[in-house]
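Chapter summary example: a protein plus protoporphyrin IX containing FE.
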Amino acid sequence: MNGEQPTRRDFLYIATGAVGAVGAAAAAWPLIHQMNPDASVQALASTEVDLTPVKEGQIITVKWRGKPVFISHRTKKEIEEAVKTPLRDLPDPQTDESRVKKGKEQWLVVIGVCTHLGCVPLGHQGDYHGWFCPCHGSHYDTSGRIRKGPAPLNLEVPPYEFASDTMVRIG
Amino acid sequence: MSGPSNFQPKSPILQWTERRLPVLGLMHSSFVAYPTPRNLNYWWTFGGILSFCLAVQIITGIVLAMHYTPTVAGAFKSVEHIMRDVNYGWLLRYVHANGASMFFIAVYIHIFRGLYYGSYKEPREILWILGVIIFLLMMATAFMGYVLPWGQMSFWGATVITNLFSAIPGVGQKIVELLWGGYSVDQPTLQRFFSLHYLLPFMIAGVVVLHVWALHEVGQNNPAGIDVKSDKDTVPFTPYATAKDNFAMVCFMIFFAWFVFYIPNYLGHADNYIPANPLQTPTHIVPEWYFLPFYAILRAIPSKLGGVLAMFGSIALLAFLPWLDRSKIRSARYRPLFRQFFWIFVITCVGLGWLGAKPAEGGYVIASRILTAWYFLHFLVVLPLLSYYERPKPLPASIAESVLGNQPMAPANVKGSS
Ligand code: HEM
Ligand code: FES
């Protein structure tokens, strides 16, 4: 029986199976995609903050997309520390300049979520005077960059812009 | 290997139904006539205890769900409402919350029993893997249940554990957002966890059916780890196993009740009586005790992805155990070296559990690393090597001989000579 030709029935089996598989995948997609962030969650995606009451040396926490965002009004010393740090000392090298808006270097805006497993780090703490995450011991500097501990990345800078000199829009 | 069932109900009505759906016969052959090895000890009673735990969780859970509200604004309040206002609500919740711990105590004993007596070996590999699947489903269920009261530990436990998936290169963040249904743990997360927390126990029940089916196909292992060879090696399930199982279960219930009535919050965390606050992490977050060894492994590895892989790997390894331990001898009784390594492994696991509750700093981290390394070495190096180098002790000729000594075979129902 060698050299047997595929029959029409073989073809029909494979064709039916293939159509069935595509159909099952098509039916599964809505069932999976419904779990993704829905339209109402995405609509809440922008927050405005008035910066006038934030004093130099103060960090405030605002909520954006359900997450804390730190707005740090940095002192001269803090900015200097961040700028002076050589890039080779950083696990996730980024200049301070690239993490703030030009002319607004006193304002550091970062998402207050530890890039390790998502805890909220504590401000003005840790070996680098930025943030310290109590969960598993990650230290961030005054630019929110990771310096020590299990977190792999710097605190994320959210998309934001200055609507006016004292008003910032996050998202 | 189902028992000799020539089950014939007496009542004509039951005879009528039995001819159409032989469910009574199935019950009879599985739980009455079913032959069990005559040498089973109390470590074999935990299967029954686990079924009891599952039933308790399902029953109390369904009742709790009649009063619980799965919303960010309402969840914490509704749990307090259950505790203060609902008739016997305090009891139902304390039984459910402590029941989860009891479930894990029982499952850990059950698993270590299997490790000691080699119950994972040929022909019980599928039975063992089904057990590992049940264990994974239990962990998922308990994790999602713990999120429901929406206290600080609920919220931050959920945050840290879901973030484990962000370690996956490339798509990690997308997967985490899919799990959350948003950009942080929030209403959609709570609501889907409630839905899944309701569903998974029934999936566990389904896998338990397969587990018991596989068990009845290949037969129970036993403390001697040798196969049943004749009727003299077994006794009928009822009354022997039923009585022993029931006695053990009552003892377990007393232990359970002691927690529920005297120290209901001993195994929990005070911080979970503070409502969830997404802007502030508690200074010391720890998972429930039953996750601590795995949490210690996660934190022992100084890289995010590495830690996550080690943690999941430590559980996944269990499924490969039948192929890592190649020794033909099942029971540790006849494996002098394996037996010592078994106890070292138990101490390793307990030690990891203890370390998981400690802050991740200094000496604790070093100790966690050593024990984590040993955990993996035990499975990947010690067990395979032992299979080749260990000289086992001689096995008894039969189960009957192992309990009765080398004397002329006594009938199974002989009076004890104590
Ligand atoms: C495998 C079985 C189960 C396990 C291990 C389990 C575990 C848990 C845990 C650890 C909690 C948190 C308890 C607390 O600290 O308050 C919980 C809560 C809850 N569970 Fe379950 N559960 C199981 C089955 C079920 C089932 C079948 C339902 C049915 C709907 C259910 C409904 C609930 C509800 C409504 C809560 C929130 C109320 C509360 O926190 O006490 N559970 N569960
Ligand atoms: S979550 Fe911050 S160090 Fe782990």
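Key point: Chain A touches chain B through 27 residues (CB under 8 Å).
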